[in-house]
Design brief:
Shape: globular
Bound molecules: pyridoxal-5'-phosphate
Strand content: 15-25%
Oligomer: single chain
CATH topology of the largest domain: Aspartate Aminotransferase, domain 2
Number of strands: 20
CATH architecture of the largest domain: 3-Layer(aba) Sandwich
Radius of gyration: 22 Å
Largest sheet: 7 strands, mixed
Number of helices: 16
Number of domains: 2
Distance between the termini: 40 Å
Helix content: 40-55%
Length: about 425
């Protein structure tokens, strides 16, 4: 602890405008988009986080759906350590064995719409938004090659979140995220989510790409309907349009399946993955179909750090655990358990609420208008004081995205804390 106190005074000396109040730093030397006050964490173990004063928190957020295998994993740490000693970086002018092995492993997974898509390569990047940029570029390139100029439209949907860089932001629907940065990239339309007839009207062969999350993680935990999935599949095939499934949040076991697309009936041409891919290290992947890989030439796209040997070695280890069929079956069962806990609690407190989502990406929305965004914000900060980290999704949905390794007692404990707080705020 002495060490930590030294560290804190060092921070105080460097950042004259910052101050600690308990484990909270005020005015941190971090841009203000993250807020004026941040809780400072020191370590994690299993599904628990510890702040710099040693207080523990049950984590129902997983660092926004990233830490699927929980904290303090010796197996992942050892893999990273061994690989760091051996080789850290070579650039994408060369390949490494962990990168090749991981690409092979991802391509061997049971991929939705496999007979249609014919995935043959994996592009590695560093973040979800970078994966989305890559997917959009590939789709536009394919459209130009197969249909010629003037076929560059991109369709996205209300409630979508695809990232913060200019291309990904252009297909993200939230006005508050978009408007300060306009003009965004041209030829993008945002259509209502799950509205097959609006899609039918908008589609023609000028559309290069349609991008959709099988389960919207940030926009309110909304699932693609069966009818919408069928319409998306049909229209994208009819107009030779690339259907991009953004599985950055919903993929790799979070919904109890390697790919959430398969559960919803989506048959994508391109799939993006990121968040939990490398056990908390930054890594993203784009599954590339043969028809796109065939036209890619050196210079079309690249990234310095993407798919380095350390992140891919850790990802290989994580992938094997997360996509093990018995592990995913447990995620589905624990998801059902969480659903039933929430249902019981709603009944106990006579609350009218909707429980949404798949596997261990769930949302709880209370129906009455007074349980709005502001109310959710209050619940989230009060649960934190009670030792539970929980997230929001959309305006008024409480989001549950715990480490997939969580046990039933921990799920019950978290739900107990949450409803104790909800009860105080009814
Ligand atoms: N796509 C989806 C579905 C996401 O949920 C997110 C982040 O929450 C992103 C893309 C962007 O990922 P990143 O924050 O790693 O850039």
């Amino acid at each position: 602890m002495n060490n930590d106190i030294d560290k804190l005074s060092a921070v105080n000396e460097i950042c004259h405008s910052s101050q600690f109040e308990g484990a909270v730093i005020k005015n941190p030397p971090i841009p203000k988009q993250y807020g004026d006050e941040l809780l400072v964490f020191d370590k994690g173990e299993g599904c628990w986080l510890f702040d710099i004063e040693g207080r523990k928190y049950l984590d129902f957020g997983s660092g926004i759906s990233v830490n699927s295998l929980g904290y303090g994993r010796e197996d992942l740490a050892e893999t990273a350590f061994r690989q760091m000693k051996k080789l850290v970086h070579v650039s994408n002018l060369f390949a490494t064995l962990p990168q090749i092995e991981l690409a092979d492993r991802i391509l061997s997974a049971p991929i939705p719409g496999n007979s249609h898509a014919d995935f043959c390569a994996v592009h590695f990047g560093n973040s979800g938004t970078e994966a989305v940029e890559t997917a959009l570029k590939y789709a536009r390139l394919y459209s130009l090659a197969s249909k010629g100029k003037g076929h560059s439209r991109i369709i996205a949907f209300s409630g979508s979140f695809h990232g913060r860089t200019m291309g990904a932001l252009s297909v993200t629907s939230t006005p508050a995220y978009r408007e300060p940065f306009e003009p965004l990239i041209p030829d993008v339309e945002i259509l209502p989510f799950n509205d097959s007839s609006a899609l039918e009207k908008a589609m023609d062969n000028t559309v290069a790409a349609v991008i959709v999350e099988p389960l919207q993680g940030e926009g309110g935990i909304n699932l693609v309907s069966g009818d919408f999935a069928k319409t998306l599949n049909r229209l994208c095939r009819q107009y030779n349009t690339m259907l991009i499934a953004d599985e950055v949040q919903s993929g790799i076991g979070r919904c109890g399946s390697v790919f959430a697309s398969g559960i919803t009936g989506l048959e994508p041409d391109i799939i993006t993955l990121a968040k939990p891919l490398a056990g908390g290290l930054p890594l993203s992947a784009v599954l590339v179909p043969e028809k796109i890989n065939r036209i890619l030439k050196p210079g079309h796209h690249a990234t310095t750090f993407g798919g380095g040997p350390v992140t891919t070695a850790v990802a290989l280890k994580s992938w094997d655990i997360l996509t093990d069929p018995s592990f995913m079956a447990e995620v589905r069962k624990k998801g059902e358990f969480l659903h039933s806990l929430l249902r019981i609690k709603l009944k106990e407190y006579s609350l009218d609420g909707e429980i949404k989502g798949l596997g261990l990406l769930k949302g709880l929305k209370l129906k009455e208008d007074k349980y709005n965004g502001e109310w959710c914000g209050k619940i989230i900060s009060q649960t934190r004081e009670e030792g539970l980290i929980i997230l929001k999704s959309g305006k008024n949905v409480l989001r549950f995205a715990p480490p997939l390794t969580i046990d039933r007692d921990e799920l019950a404990k978290g739900v107990e804390i949450l409803f104790k707080v909800i009860n105080k705020n009814l």
